[in-house]
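@channel sequence for tomorrow's demo:
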Amino acid sequence: MSSASQFTSNKAVLVTGAAKRLGREIALEFARQGWDIAIHYGRSATEAKQTVSDILALGVKALAFQADLSNEVEAKELFTAVAKAFPNLGCIINSASIFEYDRANSDTPLSGKNVLAHMQVNLTAPIILSQMFFEHQKQYQLQGECIPSVIQLLDQKLINPNPDYLSYTLSKSALLSSIEILAVDFAPLLRVIGLAPGITLPSGDQTAEGFSKAHQMTPLGRSSKAIDVAKAAIFLAESSAITGTTLYVDGGQHLLPSERDVMFKTH
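structure tokens (generated this afternoon):
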């Protein structure tokens, strides 16, 4: 079958970590905009099934794919399966990540094991998927209104650092550094963009009251909501002139330096 005859349906997006939380909200908003959706999940099979059901109700195609992104073989198999089911793939959003506490000057200091775990999921897997998407583009060169893209979910704290969550911060900082490098390397077939939310959903044992207070600690009096991030992702996915840069969607949170992660200031 020729490449031209393969790409006749809706554009499709792979969203990693899409069974719940922010990844789910991004996937749902893409579905509302008419994209077909590949839902990746790690262990949240029940939630992934529900997300697929909710997306199908919106009238687009949706399939769920399980993979452990800490395993490089499984990450590669994930892309292969998605590309086979969705040859019209136009975007990957690397939303899946791990976020476990450590801090050099604390009772939970950085360890090699924790660093490697964060690097594998938060850095290596997104880049592996990006490389495979580029190879897919070289083979098929999907033609359409917009150049396909990889959107890497980052964090406002990368330009507003504090010592909390050190392994997480290091892994996301490395991913941020890869944006410009890969954008140059993959042009003109594939765009690479960063998307950095602020505090968007409660984390860990944060209370509803604590989250509400934290969410207001920005110049605009509110940080990002899930729909803000999802709409920003769609804008980036549909904007062919944008590559090699990062969009901060955080209510200006990155403009207010803090010595601690905001969740520790609002318990």
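heads up for whoever presents: The first strand starts at residue 12 and ends at 15.
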